[in-house]
Amino acid sequence: HIAASDPRYARREEVPADELDKEREILMEQLKNDPKNANKPEDVLNKIIEGRLNKFYEENVLVDQPFVKDPSKTIGELVTEKIASIK
Fold first, then answer.
1. What sections of the chain are H helices per DSSP?
2. Of 16, 44, 67, 84, which residue is most buried, by most CB within 10 angstroms?
3. pLDDT value of position 58
4. Phi (first) and psi of residue 70, to 5 degrees
5. Distance CA 5, CA 61 (A)
6. pTM above 0.70, yes or no
7. pLDDT one-digit tens code per residue, 53-86
8. Share of the chain above pLDDT 90, in %
9. What is d(CA 3, CA 18) in angstroms, rounded to the nearest whole number?
């Protein structure tokens, strides 16, 4: 899976805060430049950004990525299942 998906981080906690801040800034600029979002309040835009950050996590964090052999499960869910089956 790692070879196919090339995650940059193993867990969300490993993503540097400055990288998340930069990603938030980029997303906010994109939203503000989109005419559909021009009149939306700041808190709504922040919720949209949080949703898009989840997509960022899915692409860059190993445990949040869909498993290559079964995309209906994340790597984190697969690990939890395997741990439960061992106990």
1. 2-5, 17-32, 42-60, 75-86
2. 67
3. 95
4. -150, 85
5. 10
6. yes
7. 999 999 999 999 999 999 999 999 999 999 999 9
8. 83
9. 26
- Work out the number of other CB atoms within 10 angstroms of the CB of residue 71: 9
Distance CA 78, CA 66 (A): 10
Chain-centroid distance of CA 44 in Å reads 19
pLDDT tens for 5-46 read 999 999 999 999 999 999 999 999 999 899 998 789 999 999
Packing angle of the helix pair 17-32, 42-60 (nearest 10 deg): 130
- Evaluate whether 62 touches 2 at the Cβ level (below 8 Å): yes
Element (H, E) at 10: none
